[in-house]
Amino acid sequence: SQELEQSPQSLIVQEGKNLTINCTSSKTLYGLYWYKQKYGEGLIFLMMLQKGGEEKSHEKITAKLDEKKQQSSLHITASQPSHAGIYLCGAKRGNQGGKLIFGQGTELSVKP
Amino acid sequence: GAVVSQHPSWVICKSGTSVKIECRSLDFQATTMFWYRQFPKQSLMLMATSNEGSKATYEQGVEKDKFLINHASLTLSTLTVTSAHPEDSSFYICSAPPRRGPGETQYFGPGTRLLVL
Questions:
Q1: Of A93, A50, A91, A60, nearest to A104 (Cα)?
Q2: For B60-97, how does the pLDDT look when each residue is reduced to its tens digit (9 = 90+)?
Q3: DSSP conformation class of A71
Q4: Residue in chain B lying closest to A6 (CA)
Q5: A100 at interface of B, judged by CB pairs closer than 8 A
Q6: Which residues contact A1 (CB under 8 A, 6 or more apart)?
Q7: A42 vs chain B: nearest CA distance in angstroms?
Q8: Is B23 within 8 Å of B111 (Cβ atoms)?
Q9: B93 in reach of chain A (CB within 8 A)
Q10: A65 lies within 8 A of chain B by CB
């Protein structure tokens, strides 16, 4: 089974609509990363959350980490076609340096 | 900022041949690098940890004789897919840990797309 569960696996929204992607772990997260990717291309770092209850925003994207540090959500406000892509959550595996494990990814399509 | 490069960016080879992929840290030294594989419509799967001057550490289920990793210097790690077969076709990405501390992201390379015919 996946250590990090992302939902939904795919999402199609109309331009201008808000959306949320979730990332859930059965274990306490020591650091939770959100990335954006187009398949066949590198990862674009969005933000990192470490503390329970932490929330960060960048432009129209907001990410939160719950108090128990087992779930994170990524929220996009007023989506645009440029937001389309694959969103991946990644988590540190314990304290093992920079090793990350990833969720299955959420493929987002934004209809103009 | 820190940059990790990969070469080649894409490669097509015949079944049975070996392919070498390079991962370089361009303006910093990395004693550890990570190799990931990504199949279409799937997430990144950690394959192995490359350690400078010592043997690589492979994740469960990854064949070490199939995927040879060499971390010969502080700026270069190589992944060699030996006797490649069509099922090895995938997108391979390397990364280096953050330099300043745990609050930073890993530095990911742009990836190498491998197609085995």
A1: A91
A2: 999 999 999 999 899 999 999 999 999 999 999 999 98
A3: E
A4: B43
A5: yes
A6: none
A7: 4
A8: no
A9: yes
A10: no
Chain B residue numbers touching A101 (CB-CB < 8 A): 46
Which residue shows structure tokens 């199609």? A12
Give bridge partners of residue A92 from the DSSP assignment: A100
Burial of B4 (0-12, 13-18, 19+ CB in 10 A): buried
- Residues written for chain B: 117
CB of B86 less than 8 A from some CB of A: no
Q: Would you write out chain A's pLDDT as a tens digit for each of its 112 residues?
A: 568 999 999 999 999 999 999 999 988 888 899 999 987 788 999 999 988 899 999 889 999 999 888 999 999 999 999 999 999 999 987 655 667 889 999 999 999 9
- Amino acid in the structure at residue A97: G
Residue A103 exposed, middle or buried by CB count within 10 Å (0-12, 13-18, 19+) = buried
